[in-house]
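Long-time lurker. I teach an intro course on protein structure, and each term I like to show students one example going from raw sequence to a predicted 3D structure in token notation. This year I'd like something fresh instead of my usual example. Would anyone be willing to generate the tokens for the chain below so I can use it in lecture? Attribution to the forum is fine with me.
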Amino acid sequence: MAEAAASEAEEEIGVRVRGLNATYVLNKVYDDGPPVIGWYFHTKEWDGTPSNREPDRCSALTWAAPPTVDLQAEWTDRLAVQEWMKGAVAGRMWPGGAGNGPAPAPTR
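-- Reply from a regular --
Happy to contribute to a lecture. Here you go:
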């Protein structure tokens, strides 16, 4: 997983990362479509200057301290960062909030 994440970082934002640590895993189940497992990684080591290499899929890149990830971030990413900051390592989410884990996504 870490190798795939490192490859995606280079492809999508143009940086070579080292020392990736898995920090959070989110199992997302929706009313329609397949379930998705989101892996989140942390590193303090990279080479290169981040740039948006996929402007058709991403409107902007922003640096943010973990506690300040704002409402413009994808809600699942915001949730994963918030839970990681609390010390959690995994969560589950599905419509209606059934089972354990975070509440369903807010509507926009």
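Some talking points for your students: The two ends are 31 Å apart (CA to CA). Helices lie at 2-13, 75-85.
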